[in-house]
Every structure is written in structure tokens, then in C-alpha cells.
Amino acid sequence: MLYHETLKQIGGLNEEAMLSARDRMDNLIKPPGSLGLLEEIAVKVAGIIGNPRPQIGKRSVIVMAGDHGVINEGVSAAPQDVTWQMLPAFINGVAGIGVLARHAGASIAVVDVGVATDVEIPGVMKCRVKSGADNIAQGPAMTREEAVAAVEVGIRVALREIEQGATLLALGDMGIGNTTPSTAILAALGGYSVAEVTGRGTMVNDEVLGKKRQAVTSALTINNPDSADGLDVLAKVGGLEIAGLAGVVLACASKRVPVLVDGFITGAAALIAAAIEPKTKYFMLASHLSGEPGHKLMLEMLGLKPMLNMGMRLGEGTGAALAMHIVEAACRVLNEMVTFAEAGVVDMEEDKLLKG
Ligand SMILES: Cc1cc2ncn([C@H]3O[C@H](COP(=O)(O)O)[C@@H](O)[C@H]3O)c2cc1C
Ligand SMILES: O=C(O)c1cccnc1
Predict the structure, then answer these.
(1) Is 292 in the pocket of ligand 2 (CB under 6 A)?
(2) Does the C-beta of 268 come closer than 6 Å to ligand 2?
(3) Looking at the domain that runs over 2-53+334-355, which CATH code has it been given?
């Protein structure tokens, strides 16, 4: 089974490549550590790819779309049809992710893994596991089998992108209502109170925020997800696009390809992937800190430092696409800057040693 085969292939970071990259980074013509997180990113990418001089080539954003029965609880400011109506704008490059992916030189793969309405949209990959997740406030989002099937959609799409040469992938989501299951996932896996982690998503008002808290509370009470079992949490309080995105993470980890996490929804998918296989965290990079308050807690749970903090709260992979520039910049620094020895500049560390 693709799911189990993928899990079996996930290993750790290449320590040797990281040591070598760190050594070169420390010897480049700059005070040690002066490029901050840029240095850590380059060293991590070296460890992921298993090459002390990593380079970023082709890049791809994978946007998974799915719907959520929980919107019947009145948890979103937008109607469900917006989910499928956004898809042509993704394909035509005129949605937020269309513009930012183009700017980052990335291609976009748009996948219908479980949109409620069955529509034909040219360019969208139809990999529908079912027509929307069921209402988590009343029962499970899907069966365990459906969850595995949706994860496998993500694995397949990511493997295809990687086979076609992608060296850096970004996670993107589209699904009206999907901050609600993402909140439930965070509360379930992190043990946080619902009040603490529920945010405003598409900027809902106080009344809707109250309904959202209630829906998340019901979802957790009725379904009682097992926090020790990532697939159980996913099937009970997750969503189809969240499952697909978790699958993308698993595939990237199995093929040693860095994967950029975007905002709150892709963060929830990353939490699921890490609950299924903790080693997946080694292969993730956090692009930005979302305006959604629970996102900070997600990144802490994943041990990831965000590159950008711009108050973005759109999703679609927009923050991840922006961060592609930074990942490439980090690798270029490691490859294109010279060392003290190469440049004939007095090494600050050696000079210090000589002077005692
Ligand atoms: C026009 C529009 C475009 C979007 N693109 C992403 N989202 C984002 O907002 C939705 C989640 O927020 P909530 O849980 O409050 O519904 C998701 O579709 C997410 O991708 C959008 C939302 C809207 C309205
Ligand atoms: O953080 C995100 O990605 C996000 C937040 C609110 C709504 N949609 C996406």
C-alpha cells in the first residue's frame, strides 16, 4: 500500500552534509551567524537533500481543495461555493497564489480532493475521495479508509511533481470552513483549550466566532479523537484537503525534498503528518507566521521558526510561495559567497586566536 510504503522510506537528516554546510557557512566572509535564520535554512536544506552545497531548481505549489460539512454550523463568513469558484482563478494565475507562485517562478498543481460540488474545471486534477468532509460537529469527517485514500492522493501528486523535477514544494489549501477542522486538530494534538486556539479565519464576527468555538468543542466531544493516532485525529476532526496536504508532506519526507508549510490549515496538515511520523518535521520549513493566533502554537509544536511575519492570513500557499525566494537565497549564499581562505580576507576567528 502506497501509504505504508511511503512511511517506510522516511529517514533522518543527513548529518554529514549538515556539518559540512555549517562549516562552510561559518567560514564565509561575514561574522559567524550574521545571516541569522538564512544560515539555518541553508544548513537544514543541505541535511534534507543530503548535499552540503544544495541548490533550488524547479519549484511547485500544491493546492489541495476540499469542502466541510461543518459550515452548516455557521462557522465561516463565506459561502461554500467559493471553494470551487476560486479554482479557475488559481489555474488562470489571478488569485493570490497565482500571482505569488508566478513571482516565485513556481508551477501550481490544483487538486480537487473533496470539493462539495462535482464540477469540471480545466486544469484542476480531479482526485475526489468524496463530496466534502462530513460535519465534524455531529460525527467524524470521514472514515479512516477515506482519510488514507485522501492522504494517498497527496502522496501521488507530490511524487509526480518530484518525478518531474521539483526540488522545493509548497503546501496550499482552499476550502471554506477549513480553519474550523484545523482548530480542532490543533486542540486535539496540542491539548489546548478551544477558547485559546480558535481564531477568526475569514475575519468572522463575534457571533460566528462563538459558533465556531461551539462547533470545535462538539467535534472534540462527539468524536473523541485519539491524540496518539494521527490518522484517527485526521479522520474524525480533519478534512480531505488537510489529508491530501499531510500526504504531500509524507511524500516529500520520503523523497528528501524540502516542503514549505504555509499558514494555519497547512500547519494543521503538517501536525497530522508529524503525528503519523515525527521524522517528517525534519523535512518541513515554516514560511511565515499567520495572523491566525493558533499558528504560533502549531509552529512551536513542530519545532519550526517562521521566516516571515507579515500578518498574512489568506492560505492558498501564498506565504509558502513568498518564502521560496528566501529558501533559494539561503542556498545561493552557501554556494556563491566565498570563504575567508578563498577571498584572502583575514579570518576573524583565526585572528582572535593569534591575538590570544
Ligand atoms: C474569497 C476567498 C478566497 C480564499 N482563499 C483562501 N481562503 C481561506 O479561507 C478559508 C478558510 O477560512 P474559514 O474557515 O473562515 O472559512 C479557506 O478557503 C482558506 O484557504 C479564502 C477565503 C475566501 C473567502
Ligand atoms: O493562516 C492561514 O493560512 C489562513 C487563515 C485564515 C483563513 N485562511 C487561511
Answers:
(1) yes
(2) no
(3) 1.10.1610.10
